[in-house]
Prior knowledge:
The protein has 219 residues and is of the alpha/beta class. It has helices spanning 9-12, 35-52, 127-132, 134-144, 169-179; strands spanning 5-6, 18-23, 59-62, 71-74, 90-93, 98-104, 108-114, 119-125, 153-156, 184-187, 212-218. The chain has 5 helices and 11 strands.
Amino acid sequence: MLTAIERFPALDAHSDRIVHGFVRRIPDLDVHVEREAALARLADIHREARAELGLAETSFVTAKQVHGAEVAAIPRGAAIPANPIDGVDAIVTTQRGVCLGIFVADCAAVYLFDPKIPIIGLVHSGKKGTALGVVRQAIRQMQRLGADPENMVAQIGPSIRPPNYEIDFTAEIVRQCRQAGVNQVHDCGVDTFADPDRYYSYRREKGRTGRMLALLALR
């Protein structure tokens, strides 16, 4: 078993509808390299994590992640886009058989779920993306596919936070969720910079580090 997979209680409460996980730092793996090289070294472990979660046979879809606010939507019945999806920082889908993935190393992965539709979304939201309102845009895209913010659950994963970062962008993510009508907003409260044993940190390791992987799929 890959013990580096973290789960969140607010999403575990819906384990009959969704599968989720957050793959933490892998001990003893040298990822003190540039991003693409680090992801290549992590690829087999991330594949193993998807298999452990029962997602080996699903289509794995990630975002190119440009610190923007564009959102890709994969409605039920739509063709699966090329991976990674260029120019977006969030993906939403109503389609089963699709595993969404977001890579982070100080930015926040934000999980979104409306159990009534059902529909899921996964967002990469750091300082820039949060300022541009990427989480708010993801919620709006989910609404276009039938979601109701009052039914939605939002979970914010580990990210860099004060005093190790100059702003608290997770507080702004919470505010954006609530302004959009999402009342069930959960923040794990974990600072990636402060816990080098469990998390990669872009700032702490000066850009040459690995990436955690957020995973989310409909059952």
